[in-house]
Amino acid sequence: MILCVFLAYAAGAGAGFVMLERGSREQWRNEAAMNAQTVSSVMRGIYTALAVENDPSGQVVGVISDLPIGDETSILTTGFDPVDVLSLASAQTKHAVWLFKPDAEGKGFVSTADSEGGAAGLPVVFAGEGAPTPQKASFFVGSAVVGGEEYMVSVLPVKGLSGELHGLLVSSIGRTADLLKTRDELVRQSLFVLVAVLAVMTGLVAFLMRRLFRPVPVLIQALTRIANNDTGVVTPFQGRDDEIGRLADAIETLREAVVEREHLREAREATLQFEYMAHHDHLTGLPNRARLNKALDKAMEALSMGQQANFLMLDLDRFKQVNDTHGHAIGDALLVAVSGRLSLLLGPDDIAVRLGGDEFAVLQKVSQDAEKEARRLATRIVEALCTPFAIENLELQIGASVGIASAPVHGQTAHALLTRSDMALYASKRGGRSAYAFYSDDLLDESGRGFAVGA
């Protein structure tokens, strides 16, 4: 009878350990995937021209950039050394982050920078199903050997707009040996508890067999569910005046603590999401009017320190025709594509917003010559948006009219810039569309508003 109890108990404990092992692996994969989200967010905060690719669940699975990141051009553009950027990402994830590029032979990858400032040129070897190669790279979670050390990592491919592979953004959750050591320590502690309980059962088999045969495996399953973040089942056997009751109470306390922690995490995420939604357009992801108003207020405050700014108001030409002909779904997809092109044209301190409908705006920080910089940006915007868009096997031809007002030349308040850039936009459309116009007090239209038109 004792042997039967022992075998049954051992079977339950073994099942618990298997579940714990699987739960640990799944937890590592989830943590690695979350690190990829965090690192991509940090990179987008620095390299504003970056875009990301998401799977249907919202997981970031790739980074899109028209230029390689981490090279000399990106350093000049952003002012950030790639080591500093990776270190910032590492500070968020608490683990190492690397940037790799294909090697000269095209057979593997070598490091270009890492969060710890190590020497470049370190080779990396990935292991696991779907491991990236220079010929084919996609989102990957698995093991990687870097500098002779094995890590559990997530890999985000960095691709160009045409799909060419620039490199890999790799973030770790720690050395594999450390992760296994932590898991093994948890197993040893669990095993110690189980052996101790089994010893007590052996000494008091007549009384404890009836009391422990059923509860222990159930409580092990409760612990395993908690380890896998399944906290929807209340712990059984609470309130018993024995060791099982106290163990059940302790597990329930743990479960409630995990539930509370999850609620706090969800509340924080909801707060961040609400804040994001309050300041961003839900369709394009660009900042909205609320965000623009704050940015304009800061720009007006900076005028007292000699910092100039340009405000460009955009209106898409022929967008209504596309919407009426092909439907709102195609129109929405076109607005998203316009936002993507517009974002790629901005400087690191510029901000593009969607005002509503087919109206957009750009607040440009002036470096030296306000008019010259505004002309250059407006020209690039008009050229970019006049280039045909490929949307769902359709080639769509639109354009953009741009009105420009500069601070402090054309106004020293947000209201003045908005009003006068709108006047200039009106003049641009009157001048033939797909062009830009500067506000001017010298040229008045029939309603008394002033413009200077250029293209």
From TrEMBL:
Domain HAMP: 210-263
InterPro entries (UniProt xref): DGC-Regulatory_Protein (IPR052163), GGDEF_dom (IPR000160), HAMP_dom (IPR003660), Nucleotide_cyclase (IPR029787), Rev_trsase/Diguanyl_cyclase (IPR043128)
Keywords: Membrane, Transmembrane, Transmembrane helix
Segments crossing the lipid bilayer: 191-209
Residues of the GGDEF domain: 307-441
GO BP, sorted A to Z: signal transduction
Any one GO cellular component localisation term in the record: membrane
Record protein name field: Diguanylate cyclase (GGDEF)-like protein
